């Protein structure tokens, strides 16, 4: 006999919105000013804009999604270290594990974004060079990963703030891209990952959903900034 266990530790990720709510979410983002980005964020955004252009594109978003999951990986790693450290305090270790679960779920969500962007890049036949799409994302990810866990150990709210800024940048970039490219309203969602990510009325709505996910990531990081430490 086999026993099937529910997996409450595998959350579904940010909520999926319908057509009407996606449009409302886009308007809300466009009417909300961007956060004030700090030095570390600007150190990442400046080379990205220089190498991939200031305006959004599927290739630029694919690059950004490659580095988007990095802080969540860093927090996951620090979390496992903390679970081990607090092994004698089960309630605290459990709270740390809940943060690990959240970090893993957000990594998965960013991975779907990356797969969707890569699919759109390939459908449009855009070239991706080794330098711009392998070496540069690796170098920026390397920097981002180590900054994320070091900041977390020094002062967790700094690490959450850096991610909130990155997510804010992503949310606005997606929503502005949709506004600047009205032809996307008439382009059907190819649905390459419809079973896992949902199917949308158009590529515009698909991008709005991704933009809204980024907002959820941002708000989660901001909530953790307010209560960064799990220890009492
Ligand atoms: Fe993303
Ligand atoms: Fe994100």
UniProtKB/TrEMBL annotation:
GO cellular component: membrane
Swiss-Prot/TrEMBL GO biological process terms: alternative respiration
Keyword Electron transport attributed: yes
GO molecular function: alternative oxidase activity; metal ion binding
Alphabetical list of InterPro entries matching this protein: AOX, AOX_sf
Organism superkingdom: Bacteria
Name assigned to this protein: Alternative oxidase
Compartment list: Membrane
First-listed, main subcellular location of the protein, grouped into a coarse class: membrane
Taxonomic lineage: Bacteria, Bacillati, Actinomycetota, Actinomycetes, Streptosporangiales
UniProt keyword tRNA processing, yes or no: no
Record keywords: Electron transport, Iron, Membrane, Metal-binding, Oxidoreductase, Respiratory chain, Transmembrane, Transmembrane helix, Transport
Cofactor: Fe cation
